[in-house]
Model the fold of this input.
Amino acid sequence: MFPPDLPIVDAHHHLWDLRDNNHPWLGCEPEKDFFLGDYAALKRNYLPEDYRRDAGELPVVKTVHVEAEWRRCDQFGETVWLADQHARHGLPSAIVAHAWFHTENAAEVLAKQAGHPLVRGIRSKPVTAARPGLSVAGRPGTMSDPRWREGFARLAEHGLSWDLRVPYWHLCEAAELVWHYPDIPVVLNHTGFPWDRSASGLAAWRSAMRTIAEVPHVHLKVSEFGLADAAWDYEDNRRVVEAALDIFGIERCMFASNFPVAGLRVDYQSLVAGVYRMLSDLDRQAQRAFFHDNADRFYRLT
Done:
């Protein structure tokens, strides 16, 4: 049982209201290569009351909403909508908003996002290769695109962090990038996506994770262990979590649910209970750092 006196900051979740068709991937423009396969179950409203129902009696005290691919012609619209949810329902506590780094209006949109009091960071997904061994180097929107890098550098001017979301085969490239920007706090999403659970796949993932972990201002969201072709398995995921904690150290790791997306494979209660069990050998100070303090500090929630 999760201890009721151990507070939780959920460092990564989503909300959406599909009545206004603001999320094309959940409506008229389905994503054909979604990382968990069939995601039809997500095509429903997910509002603060739905999140609270899933979290139940768990001591979730603060949450961070991460951009959910709101229609890109209105990047600030999601921030406005989330601020209304915050005012009405008390969550989310903070926002990781969206702004392209390489478009004509990138500087304008970023400045507007940075000016909102709930916005703490930006998630802007770079263009990535579909699998290891493929290269997208030099294409517009990639981490090697000079214009993209110019936009990325503006995060420091606005005091914003970056939520890094790339598959593990791009982590070495990401490490090379962020080394040059020590004033931009970075947090890697979803445990670096260890999708290949074969011995060789996990070895490649661990190697890439070690490279990005060498950058001292990179943190890790221990989240989303779901696989496209398998059920959520405690033992299989435990080895991933233990490796991630060993590589990054507990002081740079934070809990994140990725709900409702993670709900395609596991319910919220089982997710939290499972991760807590994986950390059962740690003392209460370390557990509190993981479930609360590290995210609270990284996203400046206090």
Remarks:
- Residues 191 and 222 are 5 Å apart (CA to CA).
- The first strand starts at residue 8 and ends at 13.
- The chain has a mean pLDDT of 97.
